[in-house]
């Protein structure tokens, strides 16, 4: 389902943003592979209703990857066994890149980069019990030092199908310069597909592919308020004003379909991102912050954009 010869574009898991609505939008406009928001293996293991709700898949999502985070082998096993029940899930991805302190304190996300033995045991657990087509891992270059070759090789030895690599260490957060050469080092160390991630835009996407020799690109924060980035990378064309408005309205429609009346309030954060750097954005944001009607929200979007 994933044709790496065509350098596919992935939507990265984005907490609070890459829900079913955004995933449905980017699938319409050039994204090849979508990934769920990061889902706690512990919460899955205990059948948390909110967590199960996050698993829902959009009709357009194929393939659809679910990303889990966990470091307890028994709970990861239970989580995988629950995911096995959902035929619409095509792959399971292990998060080894989340840098936030809360994740590190729980010994999940990028904290696993400090314990390669535990990391590989968790991947082995997923591989052993999963009935999905794909097993993958998303990593950073390391926790505080760059060890991309060591990480990539150990993960490859677990039998995963591909690796996504964010070109910063955990300590680099989101502000340090992305090291694409380090992603290339990982690529040269393994024989499985490597997906490059980190500060990728429609302007540098081709250069990143050349620098890293990656088999695909994963777009994260650059898609927030800019879901047409996938279309722009694929076509080399910028969208016009009418297309932008159409995509924003499509996103709002997806939000309302999934969340019902709550969608109006939920969509405000997206409109804040869509309106960034536009003239009179502050007036528009103040207007939509006090809008609770879907029809009035649509009118505000049509008038402003």
TrEMBL record:
This is tRNA-dihydrouridine synthase. Gene3D superfamilies: Aldolase class I, Putative flavin oxidoreducatase, domain 2. It is an enzyme of class 1 (oxidoreductase). It comes from Campylobacter blaseri. InterPro entries: Aldolase_TIM, DUS-like_FMN-bd, DUS_fam, tRNA-dHydroUridine_Synthase_C, tRNA_hU_synthase_CS. Its cofactor is FMN. Residues 11-294 form the DUS-like FMN-binding domain. Catalyzes the synthesis of 5,6-dihydrouridine (D), a modified base found in the D-loop of most tRNAs, via the reduction of the C5-C6 double bond in target uridines. Transmembrane segments: none annotated. Belongs to the dus family. The lineage of its organism: Bacteria, Pseudomonadati, Campylobacterota, Epsilonproteobacteria, Campylobacterales. FMN binds at residues 67, 138, 166, 220-221.
């Amino acid at each position: 389902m994933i044709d790496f010869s065509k350098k596919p574009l992935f939507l990265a898991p984005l907490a609070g943003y890459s829900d079913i609505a955004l995933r449905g939008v980017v699938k319409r406009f050039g994204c090849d592979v979508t990934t769920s928001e990061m889902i706690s293996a512990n919460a899955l293991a205990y059948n948390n209703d909110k967590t199960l709700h996050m698993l829902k898949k959009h009709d357009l999502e194929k393939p659809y990857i679910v990303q889990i985070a966990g470091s307890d082998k028994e709970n990861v096993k239970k989580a995988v066994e629950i995911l096995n029940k959902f035929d619409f899930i095509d792959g399971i991805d292990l998060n080894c890149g989340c840098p936030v302190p809360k994740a590190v304190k729980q010994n999940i996300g990028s904290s696993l980069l400090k314990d390669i033995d535990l990391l590989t045991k968790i991947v082995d657990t997923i591989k052993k019990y999963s009935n999905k087509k794909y097993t993958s891992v998303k990593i950073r270059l390391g926790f505080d030092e760059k060890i991309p070759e060591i990480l990539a090789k150990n993960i490859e030895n677990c039998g995963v199908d591909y690796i996504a690599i964010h070109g910063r260490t955990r300590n680099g957060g989101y502000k340090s310069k992305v090291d694409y050469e380090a992603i290339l080092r990982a690529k040269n160390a393994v024989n499985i597909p490597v997906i490059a991630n980190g500060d990728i835009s429609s302007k540098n996407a081709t250069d990143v592919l050349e620098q890293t020799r990656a088999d695909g690109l994963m777009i994260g924060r650059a898609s927030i308020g800019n879901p047409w980035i996938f279309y722009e990378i694929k076509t080399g064309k910028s969208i016009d004003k009418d297309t932008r408005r159409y995509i924003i309205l499509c996103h709002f429609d997806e939000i309302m379909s999934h969340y019902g009346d709550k969608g109006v309030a939920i969509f405000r954060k997206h409109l804040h991102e869509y309106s960034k750097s536009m003239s009179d954005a502050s007036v528009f944001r103040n207007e939509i912050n006090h809008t609770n009607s879907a029809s009035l929200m649509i009118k505000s979007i049509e008038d402003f954009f």
